[in-house]
Design goal:
- The chain has 143 residues and is of the alpha+beta class.
- The chain has one domain.
- The chain is built from four helices and eight strands; from the N terminus they run αβββββββαβαα.
- A five-stranded antiparallel sheet has the order 3-2-5-6-8, with no helix packed on it.
- The longest helix is centred in the first third of the chain and has 17 residues.
């Protein structure tokens, strides 16, 4: 029984040392002052990450593709707007790339592992409604 276990472990170690398999996992660290949300495009899951929290994304076969959302200020309800889209170009050497929110925000990608796309600021139509009415309403301008 012991010899079988040793033999099995030797085969597993030999197999592991023969080739290095690089997984395309990404650990996203939230170093922003508040919470953010991540939408994983691979498995279509929306996840909130608290301040100083981290979450792993990606799979062993596909490169990570996530959209980063931030909470809209001055709203009574939780309204999330997309801020950045992050696509992984290549897998990292150790199989688990670390990506901080501050790196995404600054646009710094030391290893050229990611493509970071910044979204335009989201503007709510509800906030712009009085301005739209004043510009287009002829009856309002007559008063």
């Amino acid at each position: 029984m012991i010899n079988r276990y040793k033999g099995l472990m030797a085969v597993v170690l030999l197999y592991a040392s023969m080739g290095t398999m690089h997984a395309c996992m990404v650990t996203f660290f939230n170093d922003s002052p508040g919470k953010i949300a991540i939408f994983n495009e691979l498995d279509k899951i929306f996840t909130c990450i608290p301040k100083n929290g981290k979450r792993r994304f990606g799979s062993h076969h596909k490169q990570a593709h996530v959209t980063v959302y931030m909470q809209q200020p001055k709203t009574k309800t939780e309204v999330w707007a997309p801020v950045y889209t992050v696509k992984q170009n290549t897998c990292s050497a150790n199989g688990n790339a670390l990506l901080k929110f501050s790196d995404v925000q600054d646009g710094t990608d030391v290893n050229n592992l990611f493509t970071i796309i910044k979204h335009k600021p989201h503007s709510s139509m509800v906030r712009e409604l009085p301005m739209i009415q004043k510009k287009n309403c002829h009856a309002c301008s007559v008063e």
